[in-house]
């Protein structure tokens, strides 16, 4: 290869981007992304209230004969994943489909790093200048766990005007926020594909509004053996500060919480010993996508005490449905509360 490669290392059953290596081909040059891409335009692809909902990027390009065989990397900060069904995007001559003008490998940062990349190579047989555009859909990284990286992204990203800057190529979008604050007595979720064979599932759990909270949660992930959870990757936290999409900006470790995870039954037991007013517990779990489609119902059983009196015992079911795609491609989860 002739580009900066984000190497995958398998750790605890999940894939992590472990290191960055630079490989240079003896005869190829490394050029700047802006030598090829000349402008960027980004448009929302729907009315989803979560900022990471689909956005379409249009990159105009100008490929000259002198660039033949050259390599470049486009770094895209704050991009969680590039939502293409292909690991490599190929641009061909519209008059001769056998002539490749540009190939770009997609590298997704996901929950591992706070950027994604296009690692591109200009075609070898370029004898004239070509102009055109490259289009793809992506999602923003807006947080969703107690990891340092996602807490930082939750703080950075907020609803309203946002300037995208990819190696000097800029575009402006307006990120929509959530219409209303999630109810204190129910589960709020944010679920999406990591593109590394798992779903990242964030759940903001119930608590007592205006009073101290203690109690228990039992969450059973009913996706079958092929779609079990990774207990080693579960993170839990407590927060009183959330961003525009109610993703945590902090993990208050002074609050007394504890959890256990039973991999054999895909069940998490989460206990709140004492939670001060204004704080809410949350957890993030990675659920494997080892089959081409997933239809699972995750069951939440809540038993809380508010102040000195029993508040409620509640059961909620969240159904997750994924369209049928291989586990290394884009999935579209649908969370339904019943």
TrEMBL record:
Q: Which domain of life is it from?
A: Eukaryota
GO BP term, example: cell adhesion
Every copy of the Agglutinin-like protein N-terminal domain together lies at 60-306
The record's section on InterPro entries has: Agglutinin-like_N, Agglutinin-like_N_N2, Fibrogen-bd_dom1
Write down a Pfam family by its short name: Candida_ALS_N
- Which residues span the membrane? none
Q: Which SMART domains match?
A: Candida_ALS_N
Q: What is this protein called?
A: Agglutinin-like protein N-terminal domain-containing protein
The uppermost taxa in this organism's lineage are: Eukaryota, Fungi, Dikarya, Ascomycota, Saccharomycotina
